[in-house]
Design a protein that fits this description.
Chain lengths: 116, 112
Amino acid sequence: DGGITQSPKYLFRKEGQNVTLSCEQNLNHDAMYWYRQDPGQGLRLIYYSQIVNDFQKGDIAEGYSVSREKKESFPLTVTSAQKNPTAFYLCASSIGRSGTGSYGYTFGSGTRLTIV
Amino acid sequence: AQSVTQLDSQVPVFEEAPVELRCNYSSSVSVYLFWYVQYPNQGLQLLLKYLSGSTLVKGINGFEAEFNKSQTSFHLRKPSVHISDTAEYFCAVREGNTPLVFGKGTRLSVIA
């Protein structure tokens, strides 16, 4: 079945360490997104990519980095510069081509990152 | 810029009672509107979406939503809720191919 896989589901890291969250999709979608979810804050956009080898900052990109070397993969690195990284991270994808905004997103099941 | 306001952060309701979750959006152009549901520690699932045409949209699990352009609202309704509807619900708006903008969510708690 096609879908999005985020791994791991739970991740613990020490303060000051960089950590990379994995996101893989086999839906043949062009666009991929990373959102951060905190209680009562909804989903806030970190980065997105509409095509391979290109990505744009979202509303809260500081302290995060991404790459998009393959269509299927969009890993997110949480760097030590991110002041409060403990959160639930959601990856999503969409068809992405012009005129396909009505299709919405398919979401992964999320990664809960805890800094100890 | 787009924005979404979900007017209630928490809505408790008794089982088999009706429920309405409110959503207002702001945008200067035509938009697509979505409602997603999230169960604990999971991703979001699409409930329904409004693209154009009929203002009443039917979704999965017996939910429906009504688009009101003059009031810039897209409220979600269900005539009779079940315990299994307990979850967090997110309203979202999108202009063309831009990223979805989400509201802060409404936590629906169904009481037996």
